[in-house]
Specification:
Enolase-like, domain 1; Uridine Diphospho-n-acetylenolpyruvylglucosamine Reductase, domain 2; binds iron/sulfur cluster; 4-stranded antiparallel sheet; 12 helices; alpha+beta
Length: 336
């Protein structure tokens, strides 16, 4: 049995200080951490319960954006009037994930920090570079249907499981954190990491830092957006491929575009270089297909997940059709 001490505080600075102890972990909704502890994957020596911190508010920012407290629950955010009206991509991505019971307790900060659902990671009887660096990656030659096709390394091919993070990536959100050195703001693109040779490190959060809020910029792409999630079951399943698209259109011409992918990489995947040629051009089947081809140009499939490359291109085209309310005439099926 893993023995741990338990602390509770209602002060951010005290929480950060309590977390300084070796092997400490913050406890919020606990919907992932408690699972990890039950399986013996996480063995914290100290739990710092942060549920009483004043981090649940959802407020407008001075520049017209929205600041979401890290302890706001997924349900509270998905059902918040401003989020539904101005950032429906956020709302829809949250509602595409988990179950109502989980969404009622899971928090926004915790959503960013949830760990991969790779089966080998959760099975302490197998090696896993993410759980135990240097032991190997059985997913490379094993069961890898759910695994990465982009940005993977020779050390880990896991994917990030969050739906919300795909939407936040598309919206260019930012993450507010507080640590012993004070507060700082990370662009969402810099928050999660690719596995490289340190797959055990998921984010660029420092050891002493606590997420305090997620900030959305003013543009929410409410008029033309979609979240397409392709999965093996219709509900309560992680994405094989997910696509978040936000479009700003002047007639047929693309003024701005964002496209982020989930289920394909160790972090929400954005290809800004591929997005650029879409801007200033009429949106068409050809331009979207070119974009999709560019996004998967370096994709690498394995024994069980190679199908995700074609699935990704189809899901991208379908997502652009829905977001732009156009029919590209491809009759796409996006089933796995
Ligand atoms: Fe572990 Fe990553 Fe390999 Fe899964 S893919 S077994 S998490 S190293």
């Amino acid at each position: 049995m893993n023995r741990f001490t338990y602390d509770r505080t209602d002060d951010v600075a005290q929480a950060v200080a309590a977390h300084r102890a070796k092997g400490a972990a913050f406890l919020a909704g606990g919907t992932n951490l408690v699972d990890l502890m039950r399986e013996g994957v996480a063995t914290p020596a100290r739990l710092v319960d942060i549920r009483r911190l004043p981090l649940r508010e959802i407020d407008a920012t001075s520049d017209g954006g929205l600041r979401i407290g890290a302890l706001a629950t997924n349900t509270a955010v998905a059902c918040h009037e401003t989020v539904m009206q101005r950032y429906p991509l956020v709302s829809k991505s949250i509602l595409a994930g988990a179950s109502p019971q989980i969404r009622n307790v899971a928090t926004i900060g915790g959503n960013l920090l949830q760990r991969t659902r790779c089966l080998y990671f959760y099975d302490v009887g197998t090696p896993c570079n993410k759980r135990e660096p240097g032991t190997g990656c059985p997913a490379m030659e094993g069961v890898n249907r759910m695994h990465a096709i982009l940005g993977a390394s020779n050390h880990c091919i896991a994917v990030h499981p969050s739906d919300l993070c795909v939407a936040l990536s598309a919206l260019d959100a930012s993450v507010h954190v507080s640590g012993e050195g004070g507060e700082r703001v990370l662009p969402f693109a810099d928050f999660h990491r690719l596995p490289g040779d340190t797959p055990h490190i998921d984010t660029n959060l420092r050891d002493d830092e606590l997420i305090t809020a997620v900030e959305l910029p003013p543009e929410g792409f409410a008029s033309n957006h979609t979240y397409v999630k392709v999965r093996d079951r219709a509900s309560y399943a992680f994405a094989l491929v997910a696509v978040a698209v936000g479009l700003a259109l002047d007639g047929d011409v693309v003024r701005d575009v964002r496209c982020a992918l989930g289920g394909v990489a160790h972090k929400p995947w954005r290809d800004r270089a591929a997005e650029s040629p879409l801007r200033g051009r009429p949106l068409s089947r050809e331009s979207v297909r070119e974009f999709a081809a560019a996004v998967v140009r370096e994709a690498c499939g394995r024994r069980h997940n190679a199908f995700k490359i074609e699935l990704t291109t189809r899901a991208i085209v379908r997502a652009f059709e829905i977001a732009s309310r156009r029919d590209f005439g491809e009759g796409h099926e996006v089933r796995p």
